[in-house]
Amino acid sequence: KFIDKEKKRVGLGEHGKAFNLSNPHEIEENEKLLKETGLAVIVSNKISVNRSIPDQRNVECQSVQYPALLPNVSVIIIFYNEAKSVLLRTVHAVINRTPKELLHELILVNDKSSNEELYDPLQSYVKENFNGLVKIKNLKERKGLIVTRLEGAAIATGEILVFFE
After folding, report:
1. Which terminus of the chain is more exposed, N or C, with fewer CB under 10 A?
2. Which residues of 77-116 are buried (b: 16+ CB within 10 A; e: fewer)?
């Protein structure tokens, strides 16, 4: 039902379709940010953080029936200076595409980003949109991937831990 509902959505970048800028100033700024970050930040910021994406599963996987009782998961996303729009798009995708009974929590671990958008604005968005399902841990100093994973694992309460970097 969810996938059928998603097919009806319209907007920039919906269904994974490319979106190109037309404003010369935005194109120039996007190119600058692309060189700095490796990401088309202006384009990303214009696409909904809760966008639809096509079902990429193999046809055979689409009909697999899973056991009714599976362990729940804590999804832990490690980030450092990620574009806020990309991080939120990932959060929405995980929540939208994980059965509710399996997703125990989603934990965002910030490895001391310098981007201020990844602190109070991110915290506010999470608080307003996810009813406590998403938690954020901001590290006080940069720790690196392995220690940051361990920081997320230390607060996780799900039966299975899944890490995204």
Report:
1. N
2. bbbbebbbbbbbbbbbebbeebeeeebbbbbbbbbebebe
